[in-house]
Amino acid sequence: MPDVRLASPQGKWILLTTVLGSSMAMLDSTVVNVALPRIGRDLDANLAALQWTVNAYMVTLAGLILLGGSLGDRYGRRKIFVLGVVWFASASLLCGLAPNAGVLIAARALQGVGGALLTPGSLALIQASFHRDDRSRAVGLWSGFGGIGAAVGPFLGGWLVDGPGWRWVFLLNVPLALLCVPVAVRHVPESADERAHGRFDVLGAALGALALALLTYALIEAGHGFSPAVTVTAVAGLAVAVAFVYVEKHRPDPMLPPDIFASRQFTAVNLVTLCVYAAFGGFFFLTALQLQVVAGYSALQAGTALLPTTALMLLFSARSGALADRTGPRLPLTVGPLLCAAAMLLMLRVGPDANYLTDVLPALVVMGAGLVTVVAPLTATVLASVDTARAGLASGVNNAAARAAGLVAVAALPLLAGMGPEAYLSASAFDAAFDRAMPICAGVLVVGSVLAFGLVRRPAPGCRHPECKTHGCVTSPPLEADESA
């Protein structure tokens, strides 16, 4: 039985460890977009390489995050967490030293593997270590500090890019790991799930990641023009995706049990998740470029410009969750995407020499309001739609779905908007493509809103409620661990 008290010295060390670990992954998910224009210029990379700089990380993270949580349950949560931190920092060092775009992309894929080991482990350590009476407060502090990290990320990334250089966006993870690992080894108790048994679904994880990689490659390369190679890759990606579904249906211990989708509510809310996080992924990828390439902002100015969105999430996400408990999830899950769609249409005003107060800020405030409205109720509905014993799995599936949707959007949106390989090097060309991309994102959000209104219902009384009340990450919904961890 976990017995560490939050007020004890050990409790504070555990909280510090988990905050440091999760902050590494959280910072990485928010700072890299700001650095993309400078990375492209320094490494002489085209738009496809910039897309892969984001997506190589997301492919391995989305494909392996469920497996990462299972490894911690089986072999020890502290052990896998520390391995994830060391792996993530080592890959970050390789990113920071990358001599060309190819090495950077490969290192980003390795970084995603570390993130898949580290991300589920930070919350699982809190669940497994703290006394039940202190667990809720510990999770609240962890999610609050993590949200602050997400909010500071774009500002910090911009400052690093304009100052010591974009490589420090990645190198910053190394000193964080050097602080985190010794504290974890010395102060965090080891724990595991005695009920964990059976074989790991390595084949399922590999097939899922490979399907995402092949489809992403086909979408990105199609931006250069359709060719037999693009067609073959797309067909292969679909075939691997079918194989993934087949394997998961027939394995005794699948990574993604198909029967979890027997819940219509769970299926519905994941469809909404795919829509909203596809739009968010495309929006934040292109907006960081639009502000620098077209509006003429420095990296620091672009990073700072995005602060209101995450600040609003930090301030009001807990209240939004409480309000959704009273009204039911259908209303916020319908209204939230519509607010975000309106924000994306407002971004059409952001062009050359855009004024921040009159052109940029209104769109980002409306975007923040939409995120506040949709994220907390979405997480609560995911947890409430399955048995309590499967809440951790449901949260992991929802988180992976959001990340997969984001990476597909980053791959597909430039193609749909007609962005050529060198578009980000021309302000006029990128601005025209951005103006075509934002209505597409808005349309996807409207689809998500319609799905929520038509399919989402009020959860049954007595269902599981989220422990993470505060959230600031714009790339994925918060993870929740099993209560029995």
From TrEMBL:
Membrane topology, record value: Multi-pass membrane protein
Subcellular location(s) per record: Cell membrane
GO cellular component: plasma membrane
Main localization of the protein described in the UniProt heading: membrane
Stretches assigned to the Major facilitator superfamily (MFS) profile domain: 14-460
TM annotation in the entry: 12-36, 48-68, 80-99, 105-126, 138-160, 166-188, 200-220, 226-247, 268-289, 295-318, 330-348, 360-384, 396-417, 437-456
GO molecular function terms attached to this record: transmembrane transporter activity
GO biological process, any: response to antibiotic
UniProt keyword annotations, A-Z: Antibiotic resistance, Cell membrane, Membrane, Transmembrane, Transmembrane helix, Transport
Pfam families recorded: MFS_1
NCBIfam families, per the entry: efflux_EmrB
Listed PANTHER family: EXPORT PROTEIN, MAJOR FACILITATOR SUPERFAMILY MULTIDRUG TRANSPORTER MFSC
Name this polypeptide is given: MFS transporter
